[in-house]
Design brief:
Elements lengths: L8 H27 L23 H29 L4 H26 L4 H30 L14 H26 L22 H29 L5 H26 L4 H33 L11
Keywords: Cell membrane, Disulfide bond, Heme biosynthesis, Iron, Membrane, Metal-binding, Oxidoreductase, Transmembrane, Transmembrane helix
GO biological process, one term: heme A biosynthetic process
Pfam families: COX15-CtaA
């Protein structure tokens, strides 16, 4: 007699991992579309590409259509994860992550369709990237949470973690929200074609405070926001490491955050240096986006952990339902 198949925590863990990877590929694929100038590779049509399901074999149409296909796959994996965690999992926290992942995948898909129909509007394109990044961060938290859930299988003990202060919680939340705002300014630089507004790695067009107009203003304010974010993350990392000697999880997250923001700043400088070398600039801008995605995911997960520990859950995955 055949054994009845049952959805286990291990199945959900691997499903969440697949969802996270596909979500990452969809987000990076959107960047390839932007950097290669393939945003209108399928014309102003969605979901068809020049009136066809299978487009003509031009480079721009293939890039745009491939991005749409991966985004559709991301939607399917997000849907499967949502169903799996809603119906076959008892942890409320993971239900929330799965719901957020599906929600923001759908939102960013709508924004992508609007960007095509309305000829690549800069605000819509920036929002499209921002929502895609939230979807990736949600899927990352779902994958990390599912991993913790699988560790608890069979009542395996997970070490308790000391509580954190509300001040640490609020600082982490502020850093996470501010990071998202800085990302949006960077996306706006890209989609308004203002990346050349500030020449020079340290100074902007040879001045500490340049004439603020047009692309110069957009690029300068993004640069100021990025450097101020470095200060915010440095303060967060200091308090995470120095004030939590008995909480290795929070300390590791703080160190990871400061490492990635430093790498992010350096990659931004590399963007400026390689701006006139298209081949190198393509890869440096991809690296720039990759690093900020990881940083935002780390901060989102850290935000959840400090919230849990400030409420005295002491390392538990979350309340059951």
């Amino acid at each position: 007699m055949a054994r009845k198949f049952r959805i286990t925590t291990t199945h959900l863990k691997w499903l969440s991992f697949v969802t996270c990877v596909v979500m990452f590929l969809a987000t990076m694929g959107g960047l390839v579309v932007t950097k290669s100038g393939s945003g209108l590779g399928c014309g102003n049509e969605w979901p068809l590409c020049h009136g066809q399901f299978v487009p003509a074999y031009t480079i721009s149409s293939l890039i745009e259509y491939s991005h749409r296909a991966i985004s559709a796959l991301a939607g399917l994996t997000a849907l499967f994860s949502f169903i799996g965690f809603i119906f076959f999992n008892k942890h409320r926290e993971l239900k929330v992550y799965a719901s957020l992942t599906l929600l923001f995948v759908l939102v960013q898909a709508v924004m992508g369709a609007l960007a095509v129909v309305f000829s690549q509007s800069a605000p819509i394109m920036a929002l499209h990237f921002g929502f895609a990044m939230i979807a990736f961060a949600s899927s990352s938290m779902m994958a990390l949470g599912a991993r913790r859930m699988d560790q608890q299988k069979g009542d395996l003990p997970i070490p308790d973690e000391p509580p954190v202060s509300k001040g640490m919680r609020n600082l982490t939340w502020f850093a996470t929200i501010y990071t998202y705002m800085v990302v949006y300014t960077g996306a706006f630089v890209t989609h308004t074609d203002s990346r050349g507004g500030c020449s020079g790695v340290l100074l902007c067009n040879g001045s500490i405070l340049p004439e603020l107009s047009g692309g110069v203003a957009v690029a300068f304010f993004h640069r100021v926001a990025a450097y101020s974010l470095l200060i915010v993350i440095a303060v967060l990392a200091h308090y995470a490491y120095r004030r939590h000697p008995y909480n290795p999880g929070i300390r590791k997250l703080g160190v990871t955050a400061i490492v990635f923001i430093i790498m992010q700043i350096l990659s931004g400088m590399l963007n400026i240096v390689t701006m006139k070398i298209p081949e190198w600039y393509f890869f440096s801008s991809m690296l720039h986006t990759l690093l900020i995605q990881i940083l935002f995911g780390v901060l989102c997960y850290m935000s959840v952990r400090v919230w849990q520990l400030s409420r005295g859950t002491r390392g538990k995955l979350g309340q059951n339902v």
